[in-house]
Write a structure and sequence with these properties.
- The chain is of the alpha/beta class and 209 residues long.
- The chain has a single domain, classed as Rossmann fold, CATH 3.40.50.
- 34% of the residues lie in helices and 18% in strands.
- It contains nine helices and eight strands.
- An eight-stranded mixed β-sheet has the order 3-2-1-4-5-6-7-8, with helices on both faces.
- The chain starts with a strand and ends with a helix.
- The chain binds NADP nicotinamide-adenine-dinucleotide phosphate (NAP).
- NADP nicotinamide-adenine-dinucleotide phosphate (NAP) binds next to helix 1.
């Protein structure tokens, strides 16, 4: 796994791209306005980065991060992501995203909504419950006492393991909560959302949700 595709290159996408490049990954970033609008970001990221369309980022990424407003989920390329691991950082804000019935009535989770759109991909929810500024600055080496723990959920256990290892590389511990049906535990309006805590504290918050 060497190239990470980004659908969305804003606060979280840009931060994750920076962290990934620092660990030796190549990245392809994309947004809704087209590659020409990403020149500045690509220049800042350096030689390991290039810009493309969302379809190119999806097709060329060995692993693809979807990091966009939830209202844009229906536009995420499906065929190009078939068989791939897709990390979902998204959170649902109706004031930004409009009302989405399946999220309002609780019939699915935010990441379940993306998984329904991408039935042939393995969606893993991660990086949604940390502020982008903290993601960019608070990573520390494995084993550092008090290391911040993020949360991970997904229906494919192997995909979850891969994401836990990736999170470790980026400087954080991870708590695996299991399938996407459990991922509400670290959605907005729960204690684990934005919680800066180690594994013990994060595990407790997830259990008490
Ligand atoms: N900011 C945080 O601290 C934080 C933390 C955790 C999770 N999140 C969640 O992660 C997601 C991304 O957040 P963010 O703060 O990075 O947002 P952001 O800074 O507003 O960036 C959003 C990115 O998505 C792109 N985008 C929008 N519609 C698109 C489409 N149809 N196809 C491809 N790209 C599209 C935007 O490109 P254009 O500008 O060209 O439209 C932009 O690059 C959101 O769901 C957010 O709630 C945010």
């Amino acid at each position: 796994m060497t190239t990470i595709g980004f659908i969305g290159a804003g606060q979280i996408g840009g931060t994750l791209a920076r962290l990934a490049i620092a660990r030796g990954y190549d990245v392809i970033v994309s947004n809704s306005r087209g590659p020409a609008t990403l020149t500045e970001l690509v220049a800042e990221l350096g030689d390991r980065a290039r810009a493309g369309t969302p379809a190119e980022a999806a097709a060329e990424g060995d692993l693809v991060v979807v990091t966009i407003p939830v209202k844009a989920v229906p536009s995420v390329p499906v065929a190009e992501l078939a068989g791939k691991l897709v990390i979902d950082t998204n959170n649902y804000y109706p004031q930004r995203d409009g009302q989405i019935g399946a999220l309002d009535d609780g019939s699915t989770t935010v990441s379940g909504y993306l998984q329904q759109h991408l039935p042939t991909s393995a969606v893993v929810k991660a990086f949604n419950n940390i502020y982008f500024g903290d993601l960019g600055t608070l990573g520390v080496p494995t084993g550092t006492p008090g290391r911040i723990a993020l949360s991970v959920a997904g229906d494919d256990p192997e995909a979850r393991e891969t994401v836990v290892a990736f999170i470790d590389e980026l400087g954080f511990d991870a708590v695996d909560v299991g399938p996407l049906s459990e991922s509400w535990r670290f959605e907005k309006d729960h204690t684990a959302y934005g919680l800066k805590s180690d594994v013990a504290g994060m595990t407790k918050a997830l259990a008490e949700a």
